[in-house]
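[audit] Reproducing an earlier prediction to check determinism. Same input, same settings, fresh worker. If the tokens differ from the archived copy the diff job will pick it up downstream; this log only records the rerun itself.
[audit] input (250 residues):
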Amino acid sequence: MWLDRYEVCDGVIIHNSGSVYIPEQGLVAVADFHVGYESTLRDEGVAMPFSQKEKLWKRIDRVLATFSPEKMVVVGDFKHAFDRNLRQEWEEVEELVERISDRTKLVVVRGNHDNYLATILSRKKVDFVDYYTEGDVLFVHGHRDPGIDVFDPRWRCVVFGHEHPAVKLRDTVGGLVKIPCFLHHPRVRLVVLPALSPLAEGNDVLRAERFFSPLLRNVDVGEAEVFGVTDLGLLYFSSVRDLQRAITEL
């Protein structure tokens, strides 16, 4: 059954735009833009056109147009280069910040790729934080201990990124297709966002030997529900463990 949205925690809705929406707060959350990824690839010798910016903006614009939120929280990795601000990053981050800020309040949670992002955001007076709370919902990037107890039962939901979750499935003609996805762990109330970047390769959660996020290393990921993000809508795949069993039996 195809859905464009699904309520995973009380009042916390995932959407097939790759965003989380909390109607009572007028808030949307997205993750992992990785602005400037093309420049990093070019430095590594990969011929890559500078095309991500407009593709990424179309995805962001879809979120803003769908929900008209009062606030957008970017849950880490706004930019890509760890060690400096590349010229492409500086220009494109500023442009995206202005485009978003013209339509809603922007809050950015620090990700592991955002070491030099503060220099850019301070010029635009954008809130840049290690974690963000809205009522009893917690937003962290997910790459390290954020200095607050993520598993405290007071949290209705903990939303994070970093993992770039995806599932790799074989199609009817034997080819492999990788589908970005949400992970929802109902017992510990975790929601993992897919990467919004058009270039960020997803981590296949069905075959991962080690998860990037330490938050996922501390829970039984087999219990997590998988919601594929497709152009047609969200596709519910059941749990990670059930999917792993189904693949093994094929």
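[audit] rerun output stored. Observation attached for the diff report: The mean pLDDT is 88.
[audit] end
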